[in-house]
Design goal:
It is a single chain. By secondary structure, this protein is an alpha/beta fold. Helices cover 32% and strands 24% of the residues. It contains 7 helices and 12 strands. The protein has helices at residues 14-25, 61-68, 79-91, 105-118, 130-143, 165-177, 241-251, and strands at 4-9, 29-35, 57-58, 72-75, 95-98, 122-124, 148-155, 198-200, 203-209, 215-223, 226-234, 257-259. It has a 7-stranded parallel beta sheet, with helices on both faces. Strand 5 (95-98), helix 4 (105-118) and strand 6 (122-124) form a beta-alpha-beta unit. Helix 3 (79-91) packs parallel to helix 4 (105-118) and helix 5 (130-143) packs parallel to helix 6. The longest helix has 14 residues, at 105-118. The mean pLDDT is 96. NADP nicotinamide-adenine-dinucleotide phosphate binds next to helix 1.
Length: 266
């Protein structure tokens, strides 16, 4: 089997560390470099908690891509940096797999256009946990029949964006099939700002941030005399790695941008 050469951006982050371990453990994957804005010129072995390996560390993505020529670029950083990295990878003909959340619709449209011009694959997935993707799919099925919906997403308190990419993606998927409805009482009034959460086409999204949590989401459906709750919990970041692998293996054969893992699992 051919070796897939990979670069990971954000290797010292919580997701990045798991991704490095996953790539190093996978037989046909080869980690050829990492992009880390604070450790230019060092080797992976110089970073805290990493194996004794000679893999080069770059702070300059352009130099990294020119020197190590990967097949796939994995980004697990922050939205602005992730957008810049993804555009740069595509410019260098490298296929990105992006787990970084917080990309805007405009970001996605711009990247889609570049992918189509260059006939290059790119996968951006706000949630790599297969169970979370199924939770989104099941929620979309339920939204056909239940039009009153509230999403509660719960994450650790170091998360930068709110609501989570997964919550927004779930709301988008449900809005595609749900009869448009403004929920709650027509004269509803918030006596404390934000009490009803964010509003996505009438559905409400509530973001909880607490230490101790990783990534969790509950979608609540209500109708006359019944409720339905669909819930997914990621208890550690290893839960995302089978999805990252699936995305890496899939992106090699894509010539367009795919947003969301649900579009590549049956
Ligand atoms: P994190 O622990 O804060 O890690 C982010 C890393 O990015 C940090 O190590 C940071 O380094 C690094 N970074 C910042 N600017 C950089 C740059 N210019 N070049 C290279 N690295 C840079 O966050 P995390 O929990 O790992 O999450 C990372 C991203 O993945 C977030 O957007 C998060 O929402 C998302 N996420 C996605 C999934 C999914 O399934 N798709 C799951 C969990 C999280 P410094 O700290 O030194 O600045």
């Amino acid at each position: 089997m051919n070796q897939v050469k990979m670069v990971i951006a954000g290797p010292r982050g919580r997701m990045g560390r798991e991704a490095v371990q996953m790539v190093l453990k996978t037989e046909n994957y080869q980690l050829v470099g990492v992009v880390d804005h604070k450790n230019d010129g060092k080797k992976l072995r110089d970073l805290d908690g990493f194996p004794q390996m000679d893999i080069p560390v770059y702070s300059n993505i352009e130099l990294c891509l020119t020197e190590v020529r990967p097949d796939v670029f994995i980004d697990l950083t922050t939205p602005e940096v992730g957008m810049y990295h993804t555009k740069t990878a595509l410019t260098y003909g490298v296929r990105p797999v992006v787990g970084t959340t917080g990309f805007t619709k405009e970001n996605l449209a711009e990247l889609r256009q570049i992918c189509e011009e260059k006939q290059l694959g790119c996968i951006i997935a706000p949630n790599f946990a297969i169970g979370a993707v199924l939770m989104m799919k099941f929620s979309q099925m339920a939204a056909k029949y239940f039009h009153d919906i509230e999403i509660i997403e719960l994450h650790h308190d170091q998360k930068l964006d709110a609501p989570s990419g997964t919550a927004v993606k779930t709301a988008e998927m449900m809005a595609d099939v749900r009869k448009t409805k403004i929920q709650g009482h027509p004269n509803e009034k918030e006596t404390l700002a934000g009490a009803r959460g964010a509003n996505y086409e009438g559905m409400h999204i509530h973001s909880v941030r607490l230490p101790g949590l990783i990534a969790h989401q509950e979608v609540l459906f209500g109708s006359e005399g019944q409720t339905l709750t669909i819930r997914h919990d990621s208890y550690n970041r290893v839960s995302f790695m089978s999805g990252v692998k699936l995305a890496v293996d899939t992106v090699l054969n894509l010539e367009t941008l795919v947003y969301g893992l649900e579009n590549i699992i049956e």
